[in-house]
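Components:
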Amino acid sequence: MPALVTPPSVPPKTVYYFGTCLIDLFYPAAGLAGMELLKRQGLRVVFPQSQSCCGQPAYNSGHRDEAREVARAQLDAFPEDWPIVVPSGSCAGMMRVHYPDLFAGDRDHARAVAFAGRVYELSWFLVHVVGLDEKLVDRGEKVQVTWHGSCHSMREMGVVDEPKRLLRGLANVTLVENPREKECCGFGGTFAVRQPEISAAMVADKIAAIGETGAARVVSGDCGCLMNIGGALDKAGKPIRAQHLAEFLLERCHEE
Amino acid sequence: MSNARAAILARLRAAPKGTVPDLPYWMPPVFADRLDRFRIMLEAVHGEVHVIAADQWRQHLRLILSSKNVGRVMAPPDLAVDWPDIVAYDRPVEELKDQLVDGIDAAITNACGAIAETGTVVLRPDADQPRLMSLLPPIHMVLLKLSDIADNMAGLMAAQDWAGTMPTNLLLISGPSKTADIEQTLAYGVHGPKELIVLVLQ
Amino acid sequence: MKSDFSSRAHDALNNPQLRRNFRRAMDGLMSKRAVQFADQDDWAALRARGAAIKARALARLPDLLEEFERKATANGIVVHWAETTADANSIVLDILTAHGAKRVIKGKSMVSEEMHLNAHLEAHGITAVESDLGEYIIQLAGEAPSHIVMPCIHKNKGEIAQLFTDNIAGQPYTEDVDALTAAARKVLRREFANADAGLSGANFLVAETGSLVLIENEGNGRLSTTLPPLHIAVTGIEKLVEKLDDVAPLLALLPRSATGQPITTYVNMITSPRKEGEKDGPRQVHLVLLDNGRSRVYADLQLRDTLRCIRCGACMNHCPVYARVGGHTYGSVYPGPIGKILTPQLAGLDCAGDLPHASTLCNACVEVCPVQIPIADILVRLRTEAAQPSHAPGVKGAGSNTSMVENAVWKGWQAMNSSPAAYAAATRSLAVIGNLIPAAAPLLKQWTSVRSKPKFAGRTLHQLARDKGYENE
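Structure:
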């Protein structure tokens, strides 16, 4: 069920940023872009160096104990009562939706519940807390983009409309919706390795639908999806670029 | 196999007790014009609806039967249907089977109620209007009083106290028989009637 | 003994006809359902009600089963209990034999598939003819159903036309759907008229009134349960609902979720055999209640939610995996998302361990389930029971997927990710050398057959954050 997410009761001055391990290794520029967007809106952004992984890969593979110990390390890394902003619906979902249950019966259960209640997916936070969709100034050339709604973002964090509000806030960007927008891209973490043929069929359909929009870029809020979709577009020789929403927004609005 | 019964119930009773949740609020829809909704829904699935003055139904029935080149009709005697070739379902099915399966072109029954929301007529088959009348002949005609059309199923169930008065067989019929098994293409009159014609009497 | 899901998936994915059939069919069913539930508030209220009705009935299941049995028996229905499918098959065979029945006409029943009832009857000289058009077609083809609501969804007109020509005397080849339907009607009418007994399932059992509720569009269900002198129904113990008025919201959910219909053509409520003075209906009605592992699933409070299922098929209609490989790939009676959680629990994780992993956990099924079964959570729970068993009583085959290699991998992963120093060391090294891992390396090569190799960035986000002066705490 999508989490019922409400903005912090008091507008925050400081936020934590949880980068995610995929972004750490493969898309650090996207991670940094999210932090810059928040900083430029006047927020103090804190990036605890002791953070690592949300634990989802182990959790989804049925290795609950290992997932819990890694999750515990994240509880330790983000001790203050500040919102935790996450540039991934999948990792945000793991922490907000699953941490309470993961720590059921554990000494850290209360901490996990409190932590989970402070987790926000980046685009949701940018719209509902920062109001960024109404403040964007687009400095880029005209471009057509399409959106890929990642599964956990939509279905665990309830993020459906927010990224599009941000994209529509850019004056020179035309958002073309593709009919397979809400269909899973086939990444599914270890699914891509366990059921590679089905995963390949899913991403093939996804990039075909993206190709039909005529968009120059496909934007998503989740780097697992981007690695999958971007990798497939690249291998198929399609000129469409896959990019994280935060990186795209920063590129459009700010001179480097 | 009372051992099976005892074993199954014992296992179920040994399980942890789950919470018994309250039923959350839910209201089925109501309609400003029930007849209109009823008609729209039934016509959408190839049902036919004719609205007639209550004292004129026999004439209309004759016209409809003639227009469809109907030969033999099955109807309960107390309806006093005006038609030259008419039979009653007055013997057990074992004695009438061949006629029922192949020899009746149309059957006429009463409905004891209807549901506007889904375009449904409700039948309570009994000794005079047995179950197969509304199933075997290719044309099924239903007499329904306008005032018997309810908004929704939940409402009708409660108003008529179905739970307290369940017959052998209670039937909800919402159109002619159909299937979409072949390439999701709709086809009518698979095993049940190919035509369902409702005369709404006002 | 794994379920061979991957090799069957391979065959399905390389069958363009099958893929086209399923894609088109699933897209159609999804849009029809969306039209029915366009009002999101209505959908939310209705499914909350449906979920609560089933949860209540499950919470009170043993009492309700006894109440149902009392009421049904008082009405003249004979109630039988079967722990296993073998027991259920024996019970059905005994009833048929006692009646001298040789030819049986069947309405659609997934539980009868679970029992492999037709084969059992054939082995004892009793012919069972399927009367649901879709089931009839696959019976002619000698196949199993590939979807729980639309059994021959994998077949196209040409294949069906050929089956009819090959199997029905005097039937010319035609792809006209009306003509094919008329041909089936004619053949099956003879069967209905001459059958010694009718077999059916039941969609709901109502404890309050001791009634069976059966829904259908064709009329074959009514015919099978009215024309022959004997009616035997088989269903699972979890089909109970408390009250008759629980049926109204469930009927507002099931047909709309399944095929996008507001209601099925027929809703058939059976409460007794033919009474004195009545002219038709079976003289005897029997109901077989099948357990087959359901009481074991019941023993676990989280897994018990699996038993809420009302068999609408919406989950599989929306599943991106099912849409690509079709029902036969699952190798079990119940395919799709519900199959991935039910089959491993009934058959055991040791027999069907592949199934809970055949999912990206995209949650599309969770979004559309009319009784709010938390399918994704149950998939993860089953994966966990296979790898790291909790020793909860309900899970057959728990621990069947514990592998020393996997355990070591995840322990290593845990060590790396719970120590900031280890994490920093590992990620910084990967950032520099990761790109040297060849595309053909194991695990990586499945990825790179379809996608370019992921590129490790030269510096991690941890390093860039420090470079840019972001505070650490």
